[in-house]
């Protein structure tokens, strides 16, 4: 067996004793690395996942071939980061397992958001956050935290790029949220320092002066901080995390969850009844003028209103006599069936 085959087989052997539905996750990264890597295992909602990080097409093919038919689902990183299309390879190789696309970058943002909210007991208003980096992740997390009413500062080696990103985000941020600012040389105390750089050991001990004893440090790019910074921060009693994206494993499972399946099969839809002259609609389905909107098309429990034919709900004052009759009739029908 090659080293890669042994790594993959070891993870597959682990799944043999697990009763949960099995998942294999294959993702890639923009950072160059040496060889295939196994990532921490994950379990949630009746699913157990083994996970692999690949950077070359042969590594991807080895994983896909080994996993096919031996796991129930294969989650494929849909984001192309190195000119390597994992989904194209998966669609050609996988014959037995079910292929599901996933977006690891989005799961990373959800994990970071959840970690910060947990650490500060979901109170981020007016906290100062220094986001280091000017790429996909740093931009997305800056927007997310500003929407949570934190004061966000963008910092990178390319100050002009940071300015452009901040200006762009401020165009779309909610009107009353704090504006995101770009900083060339940070010189104040920050509650949180986040880093999403693609390079290793960039942030040194000169950044320690930006922290106080209650600050939080998150390494989202992995190994972005120099050892001297980490040692100094820990000596000052500052909490430091290397972001573990398993926090948001549930995010990747949503499409497989019973709740989402039930929404598409029971909640969302249109029920036609020609004898009544109108339809029941729910779950975002745009009804024709006069259709009745309910909470779910299968066994509804609530009348939401009457569709205006434009994607909205009519005011009760605008109901026709026939529409009033429809609503009362359906309301009484639901009431009798709930007894």
Using brief descriptors, characterize the structure shown.
about 350 residues; alpha/beta; Rossmann fold; 3 domains; six-stranded parallel beta sheet; five-stranded mixed beta sheet; 10 helices; Shikimate / quinate 5-dehydrogenase; NAD(P)-bd_dom_sf; Shikm_DH/Glu-tRNA_Rdtase
Question: What is the fold's blueprint, element by element?
Answer:
Layout lengths: L2 H13 L5 E7 L9 E8 L2 E7 L3 H11 L5 E5 L8 H8 L4 E5 L1 H16 L8 E5 L3 H12 L3 E5 L3 H14 L8 E2 L7 E6 L15 E9 L7 H9 L3 E4 L6 H5 L4 H10 L1 E5 L4 E5 L9 E3 L8 E4 L14 H17 L2
Parallel strand pairs: 1-3, 1-4, 4-5, 6-7, 6-9, 7-8, 9-10, 10-11, 13-14
Antiparallel strand pairs: 2-3, 12-13, 14-15
Helix pairs in contact: 1-2, 2-3, 4-5
Outline of the structure:
By secondary structure, the protein is of the alpha/beta class. Helix content is 34%, strand content 24%. It has a 6-stranded parallel sheet with strand order 8-7-6-9-10-11, with helices on both faces. A 5-stranded mixed sheet has the order 2-3-1-4-5. Strands 12-13-14-15 form a 4-stranded mixed sheet, with helices on one face.
What does this structure look like?
The chain is of the alpha/beta class and 339 residues long. It has three domains: 3-102, 3-Layer(aba) Sandwich (Rossmann fold); 106-249, Rossmann fold (3-Layer(aba) Sandwich), CATH 3.40.50; 266-337, no CATH class. The chain is 34% helix and 24% strand. It contains ten helices and 15 strands. A six-stranded parallel sheet has the order 8-7-6-9-10-11, with helices on both faces. Strands 2-3-1-4-5 form a five-stranded mixed sheet. A four-stranded mixed sheet has the order 12-13-14-15, with helices on one face. Helix 5 (136-147) links the parallel strand 6 (128-132) and strand 7 (151-155). Helix 2 packs parallel to helix 3. The radius of gyration is 25 Å and the shape is globular. The termini are far apart. The mean pLDDT is 94.
């Amino acid at each position: 067996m090659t080293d890669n085959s042994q790594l993959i087989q070891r993870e597959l052997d682990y799944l043999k004793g697990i009763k949960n539905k099995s998942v294999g996750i294959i993702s890639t990264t923009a950072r160059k690395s040496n060889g295939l890597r196994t990532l921490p295992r994950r379990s949630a909602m009746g699913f157990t996942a083994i996970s692999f990080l690949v950077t070359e097409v042969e590594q991807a093919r080895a994983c896909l071939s080994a996993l096919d038919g031996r796991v129930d689902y294969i989650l494929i990183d849909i984001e192309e980061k190195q000119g390597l299309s994992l989904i194209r390879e998966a669609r050609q190789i996988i014959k037995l397992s079910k292929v599901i696309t996933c977006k690891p970058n989005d799961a990373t943002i959800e994990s970071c958001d959840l970690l910060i909210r947990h650490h500060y007991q979901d109170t981020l208003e007016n906290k100062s956050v220094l986001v280091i980096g000017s790429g996909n992740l740093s931009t997305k997390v800056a927007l997310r935290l500003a929407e949570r009413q934190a004061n966000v500062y963008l910092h990178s080696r390319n100050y002009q790029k940071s300015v452009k990103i901040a200006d762009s985000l401020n165009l779309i941020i909610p009107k009353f949220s704090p504006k995101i600012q770009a900083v060339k040389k940070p010189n104040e105390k920050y509650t949180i320092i986040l880093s999403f750089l693609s390079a290793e050991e960039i942030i040194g001990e000169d950044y320690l002066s930006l922290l106080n004893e209650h600050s939080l440090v998150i390494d989202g790019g992995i190994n972005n901080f120099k050892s001297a910074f980490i040692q100094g921060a820990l000596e000052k009693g500052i909490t430091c995390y290397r972001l573990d994206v398993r926090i948001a494993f549930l995010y990747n499972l949503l499409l497989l969850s019973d709740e989402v399946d039930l929404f598409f099969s029971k909640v969302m839809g249109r029920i036609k009844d020609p004898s009544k002259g109108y339809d029941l609609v729910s779950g975002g389905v745009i009804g024709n003028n006069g259709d009745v909107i309910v909470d779910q098309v299968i066994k509804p429990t609530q009348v939401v209103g009457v569709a205006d034919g434009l994607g909205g709900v009519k005011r009760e004052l605008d109901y026709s006599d026939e529409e009033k009759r429809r609503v009362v009739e359906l309301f009484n029908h639901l009431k009798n069936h709930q007894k």
